[in-house]
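Entry 14. Two folds queued back to back today. First construct below, sequence then structure tokens.
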Amino acid sequence: MGNKYTITLSSNLYSAQKAFALRNQIESELEKVNSIMSTWRDDSEISQLNVLAANQEMYLSAPLAQIINESLVIEKMTHGAFDITIAPLVKLWGFGPNGIPNNIPEASVIKETKKYTGSALIQLYNNRFIKKDNRVQLDLSGIAKGYGVDVLAQVLDSHGYHDYLIDIGGEIFVKGNKPDGSPWTIGIEDPRKANKIINTRIKVDGMAVATSGDYRNYFEFEGGRYSHVIDPKTGWASPTNVVSATVIAPQCSTADAFATAAMVMGAKQAIEVATKHNIALMVIEDQFGTVKVHRSPAFEPFTQ
């Protein structure tokens, strides 16, 4: 997934032998997720899907079908702000495995590329997938990390662990208490000062926390700042003033995807959608150099 992961746990079931066996199982589960959803690997299931010919049927594994279906639900919920068919646009802009771009595509090329994006060009029924254009490709980077966190939470639960924190590249799931017995506390970074904590700390138990931001993956060109988050409707790098969006949800895949969508929607619409669907969302907006924080009603109970 192009990220580091960390697991912190506290349990009287802990021993060197169990830790070794647990780590091996965790590595195995992460390898499964990568083998299914990583566009960084040519042999992954998603990469095979992306080279599928138009109207050729492909039977998908249960995890891939599940994530695609969940993505389509979130796309509908967010009025198209989350769209897994934007892979051609992501490649056009130059974001992804090859690093950060240094220029912007021609408007005419963006318009042409948009012709083969959009969920109307894919069909999934009973795990059978069809795309209507050879050039359609999927990008699960906005949800796959969260799904990986959910998988690891299931592993720890199955082994009887009740106090842990899982972190894959900033997507988090926490349960129970810290090793010292105190509750887990998550601090949200100041989006313009790396490793600094803004004045919002949250306490969660048995919940996922996902943050999407433009402060680590962006480029500047001719005075403009371009985020790695692409607006599926326009094909352009997201132009909103939102620099960070944090979502708390029972599943990390949901939190991951909605946080990505919030970056695209902008603060006002994102809070409106989150409020309508009872989603805990905090959006940090940069208004001419001044940081402004917006929270949905469902987010407030988690703040200290």
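Second construct, same run, same settings:
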Amino acid sequence: MNYQEKKDKIVAYIKSGESQKENFKMGLEMEHFVIDKDKLFSYDYFGEKGVGDTLRKLNNMGFEVTNEEEGYILGLRKADIAVNLEPAGQFELAIDAKKNIKDLDESYKKIMKEIIPIFEEKNQYLETLGYHPKSKIMDLNIIPKDRYRYMQKYFKEFAGKYALNMMRGSASVQSAIDYYNEEDFKKKFFVANALSAFMYTLYDNAYIFEGEVYEKRNLRQEIWEYCDKNRTGVYDFAFDEDMVYEKYAEKILNTDIIFVNENGKDIYKADTKFEKIMDEDFSDEMIFHALSIVFPDVRAKKYLEIRMPDAVPYPYNISFPALLKGLFYNEENLNKLREDFKNMTYETCQKLKLDASKNGLYAKYEDKTIYEWIKYFISLSKNALNDEEKSYLTCIEKLVDEKETLRDKFEKIYKEDPKKACEKFSVNYAVGEFNGKA
């Protein structure tokens, strides 16, 4: 298979994700830390209070095992909910894509009401912060999964200073959007990347880094910038006029694969490029792996994943897909944003990110603060959503009106009482609100 044929294979895979507008859906994935209520340290997979034990309890409650290695349960599913783990035991919950934001909301509330009692029994919070509130990353063990051991080995050998912080220390909210053809893909990819610094800032929710106060803003952004530059952050071709499926495919072919699955077992491949791997295996499964082993702010598979926010508490987590739906699934709004950011380049995007890390909501792009831009985005989105869905934007609208981020709100409470801050930023607290008890 020659180079062009390899590109064509990846292009065909991405193209196969094209969807009719009437079938567009929103995906939602949320990561959490499991922490001790009293001492605030994080639990990893192991031990009777570890996350592994929680997965076994969920399995006993009727969750089906979807991933198991050497007797260790690593993934579960129940109905439209998948439960998986990030490298240091971060608890990840993914809801199958829905047409309506309310359906995402209802699935989230239903599953959390079922599983939070397990954490309560263990005197634990399921915590929604962008970084561990107390633990340092090397205090935690990697889950028993070969691919994460190989990723850690690769990052130590080839990657940046915060690569292990990304694996072991971060938690996020991510949403997925659909596209209907290559031109739509191109436009959405451009706009989503243009919004990078704005989304990092709006959903900034990390006050503690490695047990110490993080004085700057947008810690998640900083971690990804210094993780593995060839596969993270904003790709340098994101704003090119010729950014099409094929250009993304070229990037994937030229990226180290780290590991591959051969005969049911993960094998370490280090800095072998995916182009070489395709000499032997060009299956859809291998292409999916290659598309998944890169971690840019906006990632293409058979949909576009938008990956900037920290993990944030309810209802801010649901506000993210609602905001994106109003911006990206309304043609007029999408075209406005494409015009608004027509001057955006890779260099100006990076400059804005740097400014935002220092000045947060007061960083400026084209003489308007991020605060002013976000108010504009919310207004556009509200105008495109029905009354039920626009209600999910109320929380971020209020946040921006107060000129605060969730990091700021957490900081205020934390300075008075760290335990109280972690309680209020937990899913446990949100479930109490669902039930009228908090």
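Quick look at the second one. The CA atoms of residues 232 and 296 lie 4 Å apart. The chain has a mean pLDDT of 97.
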